[in-house]
Design brief:
homodimer, mainly alpha, Arc Repressor Mutant, subunit A, two-stranded antiparallel ribbon, 7 helices, binds FE2/S2 (inorganic) cluster, DNA-binding, WH_DNA-bd_sf (chains A, B)
Chain lengths: ~140, ~140
DNA sequence: TATAAATAGGATAAATTTGTCCGAAATAAG
DNA sequence: CTTATTTCGGACAAATTTATCCTATTTATA
């Protein structure tokens, strides 16, 4: 469904969100530990999230990654997915035709479109805040 | 969503179905041309589909791949996907946790489960026959 | 039986994704 | 200003997926 990089990115963003609630910045080391991911690879993904404006970074001593608390409810999962995997999952044909076009549809177009739109809506409606609260409350987990 | 191999496998199975309707066997060359895929790679995928019992192969002169016409309505897309990509898309966690477990759910578990089940139902309810008819009628296409 | 046509399968190569390493640049604190 | 800390960014390595090539095996027909 999502690439490994995207899975790590989503989990990292959620963890950063939980910490930003308490005004804490976190670095790649703490993030990788918390989401059970390779640290250096995770750092690369964080760079991409910064470049796309999903999270903010502060260099130097006492630096780290954070998300403006006021934005937590506005940043949706879709922004994270888009930043890492692009928009292919939203727009691409399920069978890999060059374009998904209702005028030249693949055999599963109609059925696939429904699923894809549901996924799109879910990602666009789910905020980092909501997911972070699930983790903070102990109802959800970022690692097994 | 699906691997390239799976995309090719689905399209190949649909094309074989359209030809089996007319009692014709087809080989990797014709299939690859029809679905716009690399021929040798497609041949490998066909081997997997044969091994999993999704399609039948006949070796030697006048051989090729076919699907029993009586089974066309019974063979579902899920069988093809399962044969090539396995069951991870049905059972795996959307964020890559080792297991998808409602007792130790990832932050998106509840929302993801809905999408995943819709996809599962779609794949389990859609027959090769139905998709092949779409192609034969000219309503759907296997290549752009 | 000989021949041609066709799938099966192993070895290999190319491309992409995933993952590591290390030095450069920035920044807070002493 | 110096030092310690931390992100940034490029180069590199490993693993996986995608793709190619060639030979063996099978089978219908002449
Ligand atoms: S054309 Fe394949 S999903 Fe739209
Ligand atoms: S635990 Fe992640 S989808 Fe179920």
């Amino acid at each position: 469904m999502f690439s490994k990089a995207c899975e790590y990115g989503i989990k990292a963003a959620i963890f950063i969100a939980t910490q930003s609630y308490e005004g804490k910045r976190v670095g790649p080391k703490a993030i990788a530990k918390e989401i059970d991911s390779p640290q250096a690879f995770t750092a690369k993904i964080l760079q991409a999230l910064v470049k796309e404006g999903v999270v903010t970074s502060v260099k130097g001593a006492y630096g780290g990654f954070e998300i403006d608390r006021g934005l937590l409810s506005q940043i949706k999962l879709a922004a994270v997915v888009n930043a890492i995997d692009g928009d292919h999952i939203y727009k691409g044909c399920g069978l890999g035709l060059h374009t998904c076009d209702a005028n030249q549809p693949c055999p599963v177009h109609n059925k696939f479109e429904v699923i894809r739109n549901d996924l799109k809506n879910m990602l666009e409606q789910t905020s980092l805040e909501e997911l972070a609260l699930g983790v903070k409350s102990g109802a959800a987990f970022l690692r097994v």
